[in-house]
Amino acid sequence: MSLLHWMPPKSILSKWLFKGSPSSLDSIPILRAMAAIAVFPSCGARRLNARPWLRAVRAASGSSASRSPSPLPPPSGIDAIVDAPSSGAAPPSRSFFPKRGQTLELVCESLAFKAKGICKVADSGFVLMCDRALPGERFLGRVSRKKDSYAEVTKLKTITPHWDAVEPPCQYASYCGGCKTQNLSYEAQIRAKEQQVRDLIVHVGRFSDKDAGFSKVMKSIVPCDLLFHYRNKMEFSFGHERWMPPDVLTSEDKMESGYALGLHAPGFFYKVLHVEKCLLQSEVANKVLAVFQDSWMDPELGLLPYNVLNHSGFLKHLMLRTGRDVKTGTPEVMVNFVTSSYMPSLLMPLVDKIIAFPEVVSVVNNVNRSVGNTSVGEEEYTLYGKSSITEMLRGLVFQISANSFFQTNSHQAEVLYKLVEDCARLRGDGSEIVLDLFCGTGSIGLSLAKRVKHVYGFEVVAEAVSDALQNAKLNGIENATYVQGDLNKISDSFGKDFPKPDIVITDPNRPGMHMKLIKYLLKLKAPRIVYVSCNPATLARDLDYLCHGVTEQGISGCYSLKSVQPVDMFPHTPHIECVCLLELS
Ligand SMILES: C[S@@+](CC[C@H](N)C(=O)[O-])C[C@H]1O[C@@H](n2cnc3c(N)ncnc32)[C@H](O)[C@@H]1O
């Protein structure tokens, strides 16, 4: 029996997928996709006939195979050459399944979800995935992990570059965990993202691309006009151990201090890549970062980075947020020090330096005494200026505090929210009820509030709920109610406290919606659902439930998928946002 047909035992599947929540082994396809992309859904899914992730990969790479260079004999030191099949060529006679540690010469065929480069064995279809391998690239890779139906490969060396290679402007682009595709032309990046959404909608969502209306449903991706400096928030970590990939480490680097302020090294929670600037954040935030980098390691200041291994040290994170002054439209910056204890006198020399920038209007200190390394503190102190900054979105003013959620790309959030508004198709006569699920600080619902009767928002984070109430007040909105609650734990009485909505907006985080919420929506039968998602895999699963039902639980779907609109909010990264419209069938 081919390895391709082997499935992990049910017990393992349940454990991997559901982490204690009630399970359904019909989640196998999601497991396939999720295991490959390291994202776990929060609730059950259903069985598909085959491996949708593999099928998605095959479908995505089908047209590209003919562009692969022709095979060469393996040079010494390389265990095998694994080429994509060239179009029309007879398949090789033997199957090939690589072993862990094997060095292979590979050709990347396409880019799958999460920006994994996909290579395939010509005859068996065995899939090899490689981080940072780009379509058309021929490279040497070592098999680092072997699963039943795919293997992961670490790229050792590029032999010939990919088709759409560009020179990345950032000096850290080839090894920083943030921008994985900066060396791929932007046009190629968005083409790949659009294809990934389409593949997931077809193979996980079970919507047929053969249907006459399918091409109308799948919209072209909306690109982002700002390719750099689009992030309004960056969180840098302090580290006691500076990380550089071994092949770029110079003797000068080795002699420098081991301390670092930057981004986590991919795959290491305790090693930090020291960065002098990040091209994704605002220009002014980079100026502030440069001042920190020039001074924080000065021994006279006595500042020690927090050591996550032995839990000593003081400085944990530096968060920089950029908003806008609502009167002048000029940037305003919040600096948030996350420390392991409250010792403001240690921070003041740094504060004095950064407040020289007029844009810095807020300096706060989140104190996180726990051994965990998150940036949310148990206590927050304002060291200078205001305790929050402001930003404008769809003509409304939002107050953003250090720990409140706000769309990270304000420029593209304007585009995203306009798409949500278009999908909502409000009558504008002030008669409709909007249910804003996973409302965060209320920004989506509030942008609709002035044209509807009432907005009801639900959100699990208490601070976000109080921000939403504050934001409603700030904008003179009185027809919005915000409730704190966990939408994964709703009871049968959920929905009894508000009128039946005309429009449901749902914007869950990466795991998508819990089965309880899916069931509630299928029972509620609101005329329209606008689903905003940052994870097309869980989006596709939930669309399947809402439209086709949860077969094994005897629940029918009752929605028709009217549109899927991918939006690129984060150029050079694997992230994809989508706005979908569902209408009651
Ligand atoms: C992607 S954000 C969307 C926020 C908001 N719609 C916006 O556009 O700014 C998802 C939100 O869902 C909230 N959330 C996550 N899990 C939740 C749960 N189980 N119940 C309720 N809210 C949850 C998060 O705190 C976060 O604010």
From TrEMBL:
Residues 63-93 are annotated as: Disordered. It comes from Zingiber officinale. Belongs to the class I-like SAM-binding methyltransferase superfamily. RNA M5U methyltransferase family. GO terms for molecular function: RNA methyltransferase activity; S-adenosylmethionine-dependent methyltransferase activity. S-adenosyl-L-methionine binds at Q407, F438, E459, D507. Residues 84-93 have a biased composition (Low complexity). Signal peptide: none annotated. This is TRAM domain-containing protein.
